[in-house]
Amino acid sequence: MNKNKLTTSWGAPVGDNQHSMTAGSRGPTLIQDVHLLEKLAHFNRERVPERVVHAKGAGAHGYFQVTNDVSKYTKANFLSEVGKRTPLFIRFSTVAGENGSADTVRDPRGFAVKFYTEEGIYDLVGNNTPVFFIRDAIKFPDFIHTQKRDPQTHLKNPTAVWDFWSLSPESLHQIMILMSDRGIPATYRHMNGYGSHTFKWVNAEGEGVWVKYHIKTEQGIKNLAPKVAVEIAGENPDYHTEDLFNSIEEGDFPSWKVSVQIMPLEDANKYRFDPFDVTKVWSHKDYPMIEVGRIVLNRNPENYFAEVEQATFSPGSFVPGIEASPDKMLQGRLFAYADAHRYRVGANHQHLPINRSKSEVRTYQRDGQMRFDDNGGKSPYYEPNSFDGPEESPEHRPSTSVVSGLAESVGFDHHDHYTQPGDLYRLLSDEEQERLIQQIVASMAPVTKDEIKLRQIQHFYKVDPTFGKRIAQGLGIAIFN
Questions:
Q1: 407-409 and 109-117 as β-strands: parallel, antiparallel, unpaired?
Q2: CATH number for the domain whose boundaries are 21-361
Q3: Which DSSP string corresponds to 163-229?
Q4: What's 240's DSSP letter?
């Protein structure tokens, strides 16, 4: 019997800490999973006052312009006609470091876009990678703990990082991207952005498709060699922040091409990879890129705190025509991000100028800290009412989706963690493979337990036998064929 049982904060034993409770294998996630909600809510309150993740960042204003008609796929107004422009704000960031950390560390980069549409705020909260380390939100607090500082030494802990990764083989795809040349972008301007998750687009006829976002830099991909990145970190830890500000200030406006992959709804049940697994990508041969528009950044913030630091993004900020998918990681983020902002900035964070919708906001929300408008005045403060208060618009109801199954904590139906990382490895040139291996070896070398190293090497061996052997050789560990 296990005497060292994991419990909730109120002392009850936890039966499953790997899978959130969903309605069937594809969800959606159930709010009755109080263990998941407690983990996410507590996690959001672990740091004061900076963001618990993505603390160090830079941002700028600009616009999005439609370049291709996609109205047959979505009724979203800001995508409705070629040439239409929508103002936006983007915040770029590192993930694990504190607010004063260096810009040039090996880390994923946040790529969060706030569209000020005529139908409200639409936030596309992504990264510079098309996949992520985990695929269930219940594992997110544990994962980020490994990226933060050890509670005893207050130092970064490679043993914790690789222990978690070696016990979570779904992380392989993202690990390989992180340890590749793209792990350290040269600047924020020279990296791509991705929505990462699968989302749902719905057109005016109520017909839906699954969609993935790709935001490709028009400056070209450029990366930093590890030694150069370390040198810059020591000389100018704000290198990326400075580069973005100066390029815009000098009139060299960075831009990105926005495209999507479109999957028919029915394909989700027959595609060879689960399309709602954020550790996987969709083949471009199966679902080609479709151009949507172009992003240009052309104006710097006037005040960093007011605009960059107080900017709040949530993947749950949708507009009509764009909806969530059953992606379990996305489902958790729909709650966690907005809750983090209510804690960090306040319940009225959406009233701040940087977060405020350009269209009129009419709600029955009242009071709360830092309510700095007229708080609704004397207008009706409940609904339904008999005093001409705002009413729902049935035509804007989300599209329907079929759910079924037992309410239980379940994993994904597909557990192939090795095919896509293997394909990625074999796409790399010999020189890129060598640099990838060198970086992984250097990252794993400080791990204090050989058991963890061996477990991770076994995963790399399954990705590609030669890959696994070369890493083992670099670490001085003998493995059997």
A1: unpaired
A2: 2.40.180.10
A3: HHHHT-GGGHHHHHHHHSGGGSBS-STTS-EE--S-EEEE-TTS-EEEEEEEEEESS---B--HHHH
A4: H
Q: CA 313 to CA 302: how far, in whole Å?
A: 19
CB 440 within 8 A of CB 179: yes
Terminal C-alpha separation, the chain: 36
pLDDT in tens, 66-122: 999 999 999 999 999 999 999 999 999 999 999 999 999 999 999 999 999 999 999
Rounded-to-integer distance, Cα 291 and Cα 380, Å:
45
Query: Does the domain made of 418-481 have the CATH classification 1.20.1370.20?
Result: yes
At CA 76, angle to CA 71 and CA 79, rounded to 5? 60
The predicted-structure confidence for 226-266, as pLDDT tens digits, reads as follows: 999 999 999 999 999 999 999 999 999 999 999 999 999 99
- List of residues 6+ apart from 417 with CB closer than 8 A: 169, 170, 172, 173, 279, 459, 462
Q: Are 74 and 202 in contact (CB under 8 A)?
A: yes
Q: At what angle do helices 419-427 and 172-179 cross, to 10 degrees?
A: 20
Question: C-alpha dihedral over 161, 165, 171, 172, to 10 degrees?
Answer: 100
Q: Is 341 a catalytic residue?
A: no
Looking at 77, 127, 300, 348, which residue is catalytic? Answer: 127
Q: Which residues on adjacent β-strands are paired with residue 216?
A: 257
Residue 134's closest CA among 413, 269, 403, 327?
327
Report d(CA 339, CA 344) in Å as an integer. Answer: 9
Catalytic residue (one of 19, 35, 54, 341): 54
Annotated catalytic residue 54? yes
CA–CA dist 109, 90 (Å, integer)? 12
